[in-house]
Amino acid sequence: DSGTGIVSRDVTDAYVGPRLAFGDSVMTSGVHCFNVTVIDPGTGKDMDIRFGICDANDMNPNISPGEDKYCWAFDARGYMIHNGKKETHGEGEDTGEDADDFHKHPPLNRLRTGDSCSMMVDMDNGLLVMDFWAVGGSITYLYRDLQHKEKGKHLSMVVSLGSPGQKIKITRPHVMWRK
Q: Using CA atoms, how far apart are residues 49 and 28, in angstroms rounded to an integer?
């Protein structure tokens, strides 16, 4: 359909390192969402697929998203990463004192072939949120307060395929809500 596309890396690509693709629009306000489905994990031993948001003007395009301070990313191997720091648990919606640890800090799901999840970016409130319901998880907050970060005000979607043969389906980033 017209709202989705395939991002793939040729199986014969001999380049050692990630191949990146950036979204065509810059997010400055509103709530934006895109969905990612893993079609083919490729020829690598790991599913080294990352997607997230970045300041495309300053992010280093020669490294995987999340390795520098200009990108916030989710890695399909089950962790979030920013400025090289990996986290395997996010923050849940239910953080009250009666909530158990699973709901306060839900683990991030590892994606497999056929799995799908959504990423939501709330530019007005500075939130990066993942929806893992389709893979047995829950709504998970990856990062908060992005609007107060040095480079958190003009963000683009970024996707990284780390191994030859990898293929994902991705919805075109769309605005869910704007003031």
A: 25
What does the alpha-carbon distance between residue 79 and residue 64 come to, in Å, rounded to a whole number? 13
Q: Give the single-character DSSP code of 14.
A: -
Tell me what pLDDT residue 175 has: 65
Run of H or E residues at 73: strand 71-75
Residue among 84, 87, 72 at smallest CA distance from 157: 72
pLDDT value at position 177?
Answer: 59
Tokens, residue 175: 């605005």
Tell me how crowded residue 6 is: count the other CB atoms within 10 A of its CB.
11
| Structure token pair of residue 39 | 């079609």
Q: Which residue has the tokens 């979030």?
A: 80
**Pairwise CA distance, residues 123 & 113, whole Å:** 30
Contacts of 94 by beta carbon, 8 Å cutoff, 6+ apart:
103, 104
Instruction: Write down the pTM of the prediction.
Output: 0.86
pLDDT at residue 169 above 90? yes
**Amino acid 132: pLDDT:** 82
